[in-house]
Design brief:
This protein is about 55% helix and about 10% strand. With about 625 residues, it is an alpha/beta fold. It folds into four domains: about 110 residues, no CATH class; about 230 residues, P-loop containing nucleotide triphosphate hydrolases (Rossmann fold), CATH 3.40.50; about 100 residues, Winged helix-like DNA-binding domain superfamily/Winged helix DNA-binding domain (Arc Repressor Mutant, subunit A, Orthogonal Bundle), CATH 1.10.10.10; about 35 residues. A five-stranded parallel sheet has the order 2-3-6-1-7, with helices on both faces. Helix 3 runs parallel beside helix 5. The longest helix has about 40 residues. The protein starts with a helix and ends with a helix.
């Protein structure tokens, strides 16, 4: 207390002898500060006008105070002129000193690496705390929905209540694709095909309203460079864990046989999970330089198309489904639109709202990305035994497992976690993947033929069978009579029949329709013409190459994925699964051995031919 009184007394004594301003300046200088610090523009200008010709120290202190203020160039020059007018120092010297003082001040404001790291850590910690708080709030709001075993049924009911008729498989497929964006390593890519007016886009765009706006990147057209430059060239994560929606595949279709750059970039993002784009830029008039733009994935891709214009290499990376173009679906859509026009409420009622589903998707956005394990993955692979599979199954199996993982993410509050914190998928997740994609895959794996073409093949089979029966009856008659039949009386595997006869057998009135079906069957190699050298306008001879029963078994409705019951049985019986996997291996080994024997036989035959020569 005595010390404080002494200091105050000394300050009063100084102030009494030299004045308050001088005392303040002396105290500031004692602490190493400019006495002009904290003053504004008007005050500094006034101080400049009070300088004495010999005020060298005061000039330096005034310039230091000017350096910390955000002043215009006009204001700085006004103060500089005030200093020059009172001291006689050259204007160039004053301006140079101001510039140096400003540079020194600016350098002191640049944070060190340690300060930057500390600020970044603090910012990240605050962002994480905010994320957890928001996630907890949203999880509380949608908790009952997220924990409901009938979550997906409630989803379908909600979409139907928005005016969508049928399309249950598409609704599930789109929702799985949305959720897959939050998987850590790969997401789904989904193609929805359909004729114009078939509603291929309406269900997608209805469901897009359930998504956070920043989670979807819609590209109806534009430059291929829009992908690498989306969000800025330096932002690697601007596409990561996003849904890319392309409403019409024509926007990325090839032109004049040249592949669209967007197709190549999308294919790379899907397969590699990352896009490396190299370009040349020029900065500030310098020489051009090569730069690399990187965009990280995964991305979830949704494309629609009314034509077969998807590049083949991209097509094999997409899970494909067709719209329901049946007459029954058309009648249902018309009835729904008519009901809506009357002002009546939809027959389907939903117990959820758009806000509920937006919150649900926001919860996934804040909670991920996710890792998922599929304990029964081997059972899915083994279940393919007995299914006719194309080479593209090697890619599709990965998409199927991703679809299972996406279902597990949707049901994450109903699923267990393993020791590493990964979501553990259940067999119910495979059932949803099967419901979404099985028919679409079946359409890819098995050739689809119209009932009209199948009926044409069936008619030819019947006519061939009739001719064979007639020949057998004639041969039997010759035998009973003890006569030798003519040499050309033999059973044949073809029939000679005119288009008019085919038209009568098929029970249709259009000769053009018959001609069209015959051309389609010939093009698909289902039938063939036995002799092309017959006289003009004569009936042709047709041979059936693929039986109608085989075509019927390959019609729509077949399974493109193992039945859930088979997968479940294999998953629950490790012994049966081991036998199935061993059988698959044995079949592969047998096929390899057969190929080796055939190759050896061909080599031997070639050597024999050489000897003969």
């Amino acid at each position: 207390m005595k010390k404080a009184v002494k200091i105050e007394a000394e300050g009063a004594e100084i102030a009494g002898s030299v004045g308050v301003d001088e005392a303040w300046a002396a105290a500031a200088r004692a602490e190493g500060r400019s006495p002009f610090m904290g003053m504004g523009y008007d005050e500094l200008l006034l101080e400049a006008q009070k300088l004495a010709p010999s005020s060298t120290r005061e000039v330096s202190e005034l310039i230091a105070a000017v350096a910390v203020l955000e002043l215009s160039e006009v204001q700085r020059e006004t103060i500089a002129k005030g200093i020059v007018g009172r001291t006689g120092i050259s204007i160039r010297t004053v301006k140079n000193d101001m510039k140096k003082a400003r540079a020194v001040y600016a350098e002191k404001q640049v944070p060190t690496a340690e300060e930057l790291a500390a600020r970044a850590a603090l910012k990240a910690a605050q962002a994480e705390a905010d994320r957890q708080t928001e996630c907890a709030q949203i999880a509380h709001r949608v908790g009952s929905l997220a924990k409901d075993p009938k979550l997906m049924d409630r989803l379908i009911a909600f979409v139907h209540a928005q005016g969508i008729v049928g399309e249950e498989a598409a609704i599930v497929a789109i929702f799985l694709t949305f959720a897959s964006r939050r998987l850590r390593r790969r997401a789904l890519s989904y193609l929805r095909r359909g004729a114009p007016s078939s509603g291929k886009n309406v269900v997608i765009e209805t469901m897009l309203a359930m998504m956070p706006p920043d989670a979807v990147f819609t590209a109806s057209g534009g430059s291929p460079k829009s992908l690498p430059y989306h969000g800025g060239a330096d932002n690697r994560t601007s596409l990561q864990h996003r849904v890319i929606y392309i409403p019409e595949a024509a926007s990325i279709a090839e032109r004049n046989g040249v592949e669209n750059d967007s197709t190549l970039m999308l294919r790379t993002l899907i397969s590699e999970g990352r896009l490396h784009y190299h370009t040349v830029i020029t900065r500030d008039g310098s020489t051009p330089e090569s730069v690399e733009i990187i965009k990280d994935g995964p991305i979830a891709l949704i494309i629609t198309s009314a034509r077969d214009n998807i590049e083949q290499e991209l097509l094999t990376r997409l899970l494909t489904a067709d719209t329901d173009e049946s007459q029954a679906q058309t009648r249902r859509v018309m009835a729904s639109m008519a009901t809506a026009a009357t002002g009546a409420k939809p027959k389907t009622k939903a117990d959820t709202t758009l806000a509920d589903w937006q919150d649900f998707q926001r919860m996934l956005e804040l909670s991920g990305p996710f890792d998922v394990v599929v304990p029964f993955a081997e059972a899915i692979a083994a279940g393919y035994k007995g299914l006719k599979s194309l080479l593209r199954v090697r890619r599709d199996i990965g998409n199927i497992l991703t679809a299972v993982a996406a279902s597990a993410v949707i049901h994450m509050q109903q699923r267990q976690r393993d020791a590493e914190g990964r979501i553990v998928a259940e067999l119910a997740d495979y059932q949803w993947a099967f419901r979404a994609f099985s028919l679409g895959l079946a359409a890819l794996y098995k050739p689809q033929f119209s009932l009209g073409i199948i009926a044409l093949v069936k008619v030819l089979e019947v006519e061939i069978a009739k001719k064979k029966a007639e020949v057998r009856e004639q041969l039997a008659d010759y035998k009973r009579k003890g006569k030798v039949p003519p040499p050309d009386l033999v059973e044949r595997d073809y029939v000679q029949i005119s288009n008019k006869q085919l038209q009568d057998r098929l029970g249709i009135n259009s000769g053009d329709t018959v001609t069209s079906r015959v051309k389609s069957a010939l093009a698909a190699d289902l039938i063939e013409i036995k002799d092309n050298n017959l006289p003009r306008n004569s009936a042709l001879q047709y041979r059936v190459k693929v039986p109608s029963l085989v075509l019927a078994s390959q019609s729509a409705g077949g399974a493109g994925m193992p039945e859930p019951s088979i997968v479940e049985a294999l998953a629950r019986d490790p012994n049966a699964l081991a036998v199935m996997l061993a059988t698959v291996d044995a079949e592969e080994e047998a096929a390899k051995l057969a190929e080796q024997l055939a190759a050896a036989a061909n080599t031997t035959n070639a050597a024999d031919d050489d000897d003969e020569i």
